[in-house]
Amino acid sequence: MKQLRIGLIGAGYMGKAHTIAYQSVGAIFEMTCRPACEMIATSHHDGAADVARRWGWARSTGDWRELVDDPGVDLVVIASPPRTHLPMVIACVGARKPVFCEKPLGTNAAESLAMTEAVEQARVPNMVGFNYIRTPASQLARQIVASGEIGEVIQVTAEHVEDYLHDPTLPSSWRTRVATGTEAGALGDVASHIINACLRLAGPIESLVADTTIVQTHRDGPHGLEAVENDDQGQMLLRFANGATGSISFSRMAAGRKMGYTYRITGTRGAIFFDQEDQNALWLYDASREPARRGFQKLLMGPAHPDYLAFNQGVGHGTGYNEQIAIEARDFLHAVTTGEAVWPTFRDGYEVDKVIAAALVSNRDRCWVTV
Amino acid sequence: MKQLRIGLIGAGYMGKAHTIAYQSVGAIFEMTCRPACEMIATSHHDGAADVARRWGWARSTGDWRELVDDPGVDLVVIASPPRTHLPMVIACVGARKPVFCEKPLGTNAAESLAMTEAVEQARVPNMVGFNYIRTPASQLARQIVASGEIGEVIQVTAEHVEDYLHDPTLPSSWRTRVATGTEAGALGDVASHIINACLRLAGPIESLVADTTIVQTHRDGPHGLEAVENDDQGQMLLRFANGATGSISFSRMAAGRKMGYTYRITGTRGAIFFDQEDQNALWLYDASREPARRGFQKLLMGPAHPDYLAFNQGVGHGTGYNEQIAIEARDFLHAVTTGEAVWPTFRDGYEVDKVIAAALVSNRDRCWVTV
Amino acid sequence: MKQLRIGLIGAGYMGKAHTIAYQSVGAIFEMTCRPACEMIATSHHDGAADVARRWGWARSTGDWRELVDDPGVDLVVIASPPRTHLPMVIACVGARKPVFCEKPLGTNAAESLAMTEAVEQARVPNMVGFNYIRTPASQLARQIVASGEIGEVIQVTAEHVEDYLHDPTLPSSWRTRVATGTEAGALGDVASHIINACLRLAGPIESLVADTTIVQTHRDGPHGLEAVENDDQGQMLLRFANGATGSISFSRMAAGRKMGYTYRITGTRGAIFFDQEDQNALWLYDASREPARRGFQKLLMGPAHPDYLAFNQGVGHGTGYNEQIAIEARDFLHAVTTGEAVWPTFRDGYEVDKVIAAALVSNRDRCWVTV
Amino acid sequence: MKQLRIGLIGAGYMGKAHTIAYQSVGAIFEMTCRPACEMIATSHHDGAADVARRWGWARSTGDWRELVDDPGVDLVVIASPPRTHLPMVIACVGARKPVFCEKPLGTNAAESLAMTEAVEQARVPNMVGFNYIRTPASQLARQIVASGEIGEVIQVTAEHVEDYLHDPTLPSSWRTRVATGTEAGALGDVASHIINACLRLAGPIESLVADTTIVQTHRDGPHGLEAVENDDQGQMLLRFANGATGSISFSRMAAGRKMGYTYRITGTRGAIFFDQEDQNALWLYDASREPARRGFQKLLMGPAHPDYLAFNQGVGHGTGYNEQIAIEARDFLHAVTTGEAVWPTFRDGYEVDKVIAAALVSNRDRCWVTV
Ligand SMILES: NC(=O)C1=CN([C@@H]2O[C@H](COP(=O)(O)OP(=O)(O)OC[C@H]3O[C@@H](n4cnc5c(N)ncnc54)[C@H](O)[C@@H]3O)[C@@H](O)[C@H]2O)C=CC1
Ligand SMILES: NC(=O)C1=CN([C@@H]2O[C@H](COP(=O)(O)OP(=O)(O)OC[C@H]3O[C@@H](n4cnc5c(N)ncnc54)[C@H](O)[C@@H]3O)[C@@H](O)[C@H]2O)C=CC1
Ligand SMILES: NC(=O)C1=CN([C@@H]2O[C@H](COP(=O)(O)OP(=O)(O)OC[C@H]3O[C@@H](n4cnc5c(N)ncnc54)[C@H](O)[C@@H]3O)[C@@H](O)[C@H]2O)C=CC1
Ligand SMILES: NC(=O)C1=CN([C@@H]2O[C@H](COP(=O)(O)OP(=O)(O)OC[C@H]3O[C@@H](n4cnc5c(N)ncnc54)[C@H](O)[C@@H]3O)[C@@H](O)[C@H]2O)C=CC1
């Protein structure tokens, strides 16, 4: 079994999640390669060394270029802020190393396109980190829609709302600045996930109209009050290529919603509903049943559903956030070993960023925009 | 205690509900008048007589004008299709009789304005039938928002989705025709309720952009296949006068949703959530609690909540659809006996119709529209 | 259509519910008789007069014997405390008047048997007030179990828990005294309902073992601290005649549970689950479906379910507590007009009281008891 | 940082879970040791080698005694069937190696006591595998009860019901035989978990009465139809040392319940409710709030709750089954490195087995039994 030596950039929220995933993925799934946690890079030399020791990475560096260029690193996982993604990806392509990049791919669609074209031209295996759509339940949702079990999709009602910035005393960060983050606030940070889900479940979005607002206009920064530069919340209407219509709400200030990534997909023969706060259940409605036996059915994930059995033999015993990342790791390693593109590739990430770009234009110009 | 003799027009879905309400309202609430079921009118003389006998109305007629003009009728409740509302209301005004009218008030905003001005000029007590907002839970929602308990409203995520026309084999009816129904399909039939709720809970809507579609373009009619003339589903983005933004989804084809009148009102200090399919609960989130004790709280309605105790002394024992109509009846009788305007008056119905009118324009012209 | 003149004894919690029911039942259901609210009796002459005026009863009395003997009263509804039921029933039998009696039928099984034998010998139509089992959802549950849809019943997990006496500062009342109430506290007051449901859904109970406790040993009474004389809470194990086993929890101090009348009936081919706090839904599990599509289905009550359409044409629009009483009224009037026994008769009430009696013995003697 | 070399016995359901846990625990938690997956033993030499290669264990053996005696193994994790636990534990004690043992500890209380005394006399660090009580939510439940936040416990309503043997065509296995499994069927396999929870949350159980049944009396075995030798389902009443009472239902045939480990703990000041099928939420009811604001609150687990932050920084992002095992691994390694006893030790496992033993006696003798 071939060993694959991982290089990870970033040791924050997602850096840790990827670490856990790569350390356990080999035990969880039947693999054709053996992943090894080779090197980790963060912005600081010492911090990297410390985290390597604690998390079990063989080596560390304070300079991500060193990691990308290191002959002992076979593939790269980027889990640093969006602003850093472009140069890192370009370097990986230069080094001909397979690259996984956290979402959003670029800080704007142009960047994403540049990265996409770079990996495609160089035929470098690549993947972007939309993990939520990888839960067993959302994979099942995809199966159900794709197989026509609920008929043709007619309406999509989706949202990704959280409240991690609801508290007005929370300080500014890269997430609230355009220069270090992205022009899209909640739109980029959370809506990107649910846009990805909509594309996956209902197909391409043709046009949209969006409306966003900054609720908390200023937050404490390192040098006193600082303007919040990107949206706290918003919503958009969608027209899909297949004729379905829908809407997305998004927010980082939705008091009480902690992981409000939800979708209801209505079709001509039924419907599905999912709420990530109860990630082990998918609700299915079959309109063909006799009237007295119609009702949403709560399917608890189990061995009969996609990518569940590897984690657990018991229905309803449950997987959590980190297991989405383990599935992602398995898929990326599959892409690396086989050379097959595994969804979502950078191009899929670019498709999301195009929707975000259209939403920004729509919000600015107060009109419908073709994606 | 003064007796008030009711005249009811219409013996369909809502006619029955109003009958039940007026027969029991006196026992349910402490009243200052005694309502009597005096006369019922439907389109057919015989049908009216039959229904009067079965439901307990003293007299009946096949001609609603007879009812309006009858000196033994003190007030009129209109529960016939929207297309009939205008002449009936004008007649009531002519007869100086208090008038309750089912929603939507008119078939368009112009009609609604005409009715509103007529009752206002003649100082005829009047009310429009937005019953859902009268449940104990939605009254509590109003209290909570109005008192500032969840701070200033920042986002409204609402919908009214049902599936009563999801089955493509269901025939056409006044609901699917413009000539006999209204230009607004699900937009008028169901969205009117949730627009009313949004106005009640978050204040005036300044502008909107809407998108509607006819999913099932043809249905069986009395003379063969007939075009469906108004929307089956849609969604809109809202900008409120107070700066909040939001969205509404609406549908009569939302497979699996039976009474999907839901709203989440997010404020700067908390949030509320309501789903009419579980009408005895209001969910409240208080962002000021300590982090480890934050979470939506399921408040089951009980004697401590608005208009519950009259029905039942036990918390969580529950009220249903018909009890909303009883509350409505109590309120209308209050308006009649005291002369005080009781929300929602015709003017409030007109406000809803203005939003619907703006949505129709927005959908046609594909742009944001000021209400 | 024959008129039936009702006499109601009691103007408390249930007296009001029966009043509302008899005033609206004629409009709700297709009836073969016309019920009239003729006379109401309470313990006080003046109170009776006042309540008659407010609730719409034609006449009133402070002496229930007057009501029973009045030739203008065709049938009697008893909604006074359990301690008063026996003499009232015996008087009704003497007057050969159909009699409906609130639960629990007697204050003990001997009383219930006496009443049962009295009505049966005199062939007086009779019914006992177990209203919860009359919701559309619980009627559907009965259909599902009786038809074999979930196979043979193997386990019953049930409870009736409320918290109306959780607060230790609440005073004593007839409910907490043996002399004026019953020896069974929560066991009689709430468990009687769920025992009735178990009998209805899973058949006769052969033996049981019960354990009850008084949690709050003293409460404020009219003359100072007073001992609580009957159980606040308890639980029992059940063996059914058909081989199924099960358990019941009951309480009047179950903090947070307001209408915790729940049952899960597990069968060899599936299961059902019901919670009265969400009374418009029945959950159904069909074990024969393919593994990936197995899960509890939430059936929202609608016109396709028992006794729903009369209230409302829309699925999921919902019925509440008072509508159970209206169904009960319809059924009792049916028993009166046709002479057919309608479940639950006094004998069925006696069956419940036998289970309660066995539970009291079991608790005292700390052993299994044959019912 | 000291390395600790793990030896794992068993490569089934739990063997895999422990493998995942030990491979990722170092990245998840701040550790004072570095766990290494050294050796795995199963019943077959080849199977062990295969699994070692696939899961990432350095060495393997078909003879567990080899593993226990190997000087390169610092501690032992037993994840083989109950029937094998006693000799393995005794061998570990002989080798003075810390030992973790899956539940149930012994096949009966005598065995458990023997194991407990052995580890205690030899002062060998030890722990038993009741993982469910280690979720952040159940740890929070413990905090809430222990701190008195819901007052004194008065009633416990608990169950552990699954349906893994509901299908009558499923074959017999060690789980259905006494000789290779335990005398207690569902009682040992699932009820053991919830008994452990009851002891943890409400304290020692003084006495009980239990009733169990074999529903499916025969199942296909390797040599044709074979008798099922232990209980499929049952229920018991409990009396706790502190005066609280309660009940437990348990089943391996509870159609539709997949992970029905639930408890409601009612106290004098509030209540908590938990359902393992929604393991990231704990429901809390605070009876001291004003009546109009009382209701169960759904607390989604997050960084403010026990053992959550190490997995994830986002509230409600969720943990799953395997993460319970990672917490367990962290705790056992803590016990090993510090020598401190970490709950639940073998003695705690023995306490559970005593309750099971009492339940078996109670079921046989049809009477209350002192634990
Ligand atoms: N898929 C998901 O569910 C989530 C994805 N993300 C995405 O993951 C990425 C990282 O976000 P977080 O982990 O939340 O950020 P974070 O702020 O927690 O951590 C960022 C890490 O990147 C490192 N870093 C920053 N600049 C660097 C540089 N020039 N060289 C090397 N290391 C550098 C920092 O030292 C830090 O360790 C973002 O793209 C974000 O959008 C974040 C959270 C959830
Ligand atoms: N508030 C609510 O929840 C609901 C409100 N509605 C509203 O109630 C009104 C009636 O709707 P439904 O009861 O569903 O209609 P329906 O079709 O069930 O019944 C209409 C009734 O009006 C009578 N009618 C029609 N034209 C008449 C005329 N010229 N003179 C006398 N009677 C006439 C018919 O005979 C029939 O009895 C509509 O405005 C509708 O939008 C309807 C359903 C629910
Ligand atoms: N089916 C259900 O859901 C419920 C049933 N009940 C049952 O209904 C019955 C009454 O209970 P509540 O209404 O809660 O009691 P309550 O205390 O609210 O009212 C009792 C009424 O009976 C009257 N009364 C008492 N003694 C009388 C006498 N000697 N003559 C005439 N009237 C007399 C009182 O004046 C009072 O109006 C009880 O059997 C109780 O168990 C009570 C609540 C719910
Ligand atoms: N804590 C929990 O949630 C759960 C605990 N368990 C417990 O875990 C233990 C194992 O159960 P499962 O993993 O379900 O069993 P399993 O049948 O899936 O696997 C048992 C493993 O033990 C091995 N084994 C059997 N005899 C052996 C021997 N003499 N020497 C070496 N290896 C031997 C087998 O080869 C097999 O790999 C039991 O005590 C069970 O009660 C099981 C499932 C869940």
TrEMBL record, chains A, B, C, D:
SUPFAM superfamilies: Glyceraldehyde-3-phosphate dehydrogenase-like, C-terminal domain, NAD(P)-binding Rossmann-fold domains. Residues 139-272 form the GFO/IDH/MocA-like oxidoreductase domain. The keyword Protease does not apply. InterPro entries: Gfo/Idh/MocA-like_OxRdtase_N, Gfo/Idh/MocA_oxidrdct_glycsds, GFO_IDH_MocA-like_dom, NAD(P)-bd_dom_sf. Keywords: Oxidoreductase. Residues 4-130 form the Gfo/Idh/MocA-like oxidoreductase N-terminal domain. It holds the Pfam family GFO_IDH_MocA. This is Gfo/Idh/MocA family oxidoreductase. It comes from Luteibacter flocculans. The lineage of its organism: Bacteria, Pseudomonadati, Pseudomonadota, Gammaproteobacteria, Lysobacterales.
